[in-house]
Amino acid sequence: MRILVTGGAGYIGSHTCVELLNEGHEVVVLDNLSNSSEVSLDRVKELTGKELDFCKGDIRDRDVLKKLFSEKPVDAVIHFAGLKAVGESVQKPWEYYENNISGTLILVDEMRKAGCKNIIFSSSSTVYGTPEKVPVTEQTPKGSCTNPYGWTKSMLEQILSDIQAADSEWNVILLRYFNPIGAHPSGRMGEDPNGIPNNLMPYITQVAVGKLERLGVFGDDYDTPDGTGVRDYIHVVDLAVGHVAALKKIEEKAGLKIYNLGTGTGYSVLDIVHAFEEATGQKIPYDIKPRRAGDIAENYADATLAKEELGWEAKYGIREMCQDSWRWQSQNPNGYKS
Ligand code: NAD
Ligand code: UFG
Hints:
With 338 residues, the chain is an alpha/beta fold. 41% of the residues lie in helices and 17% in strands.
């Protein structure tokens, strides 16, 4: 199939391009490079030995989309493009709603005009809000989000579901990612955040490589086994493979489907620190800090549905996630800028 990958130069998108090309799909990436570098796509080509088409452009630009769809028919869109920094979204809600929601509305409109009605959307476990019990299944009610970023995911899920309900020619798969970490095992591709990382694993790897001094652990008084927050960390390559599995489902005329992509296992912040130290031999000094606003105590997936219906399950464990994150960070201390 010819797949349009929006946001394909980013962290999850670039890893997904590798898996798509390895499966024999044709790939065209549309990315405005607002949070990524084109070097990631050079690495995709290097690792796969295959070519892909790249269009530097914005999902909000109708002319770009029209040109892209008219040049060569697209069979399905994997839609990663979006702004994703939780804290920034609280400061810049308009920018988040405009980029993520207007952008998706324009994309979907141009898709239907071009006759392409297959989309896989990057959603997030954040749509569950503060779940009453874990693990969460896809039946767990959606909750109240604590930030505009989360609301864009929740609202876009609703918008895409309504579009599919109104026109059964649409196939819409909503993938709710848990916490992607890790990097391509080659050490050539990985997460390259701008500035000081907000997320746990890139913060840890930057402490290990000497760019940051100490990790702050946000709260040790949650109702969890060691008091620190528990999440379902998933290797980015497993997540990427999940998209290839979802594409197969699209080919079967999926209608509307929702899947959790997680491992089903929760690890605390201190579990991750210790797993990283064991897997890499690097010491991570840390201090306990106050809770971070908007954080929840615990969330992890019941990923049974993806296993049953997509034949997909995560293969990598926490040790590989830590080793691969570290290989990427230690070999590319300045990310794609090095
Ligand atoms: P990323 O920032 O690395 O990738 C997103 C890409 O989209 C970037 O390359 C950016 O340049 C591009 N982009 C943003 N706005 C655009 C626009 N208007 N037009 C064209 N390109 C645009 O982020 P990621 O971690 O790879 O996340 C990919 C998707 O998965 C996002 O939608 C994100 O919200 C979602 N997601 C991520 C996580 C996570 O923890 N990383 C968790 C759940 C969901
Ligand atoms: N944490 C720290 N110190 C840090 C960073 C994080 O202790 O410097 C803790 C957090 O408090 C939390 C855990 O590590 O308990 C994980 O935090 P992350 O910021 O890595 O991830 P979140 O679960 O908060 O959120 C991430 C993305 C969201 C996404 C969600 C689910 O940032 O956008 O995963 O996919 F919605």
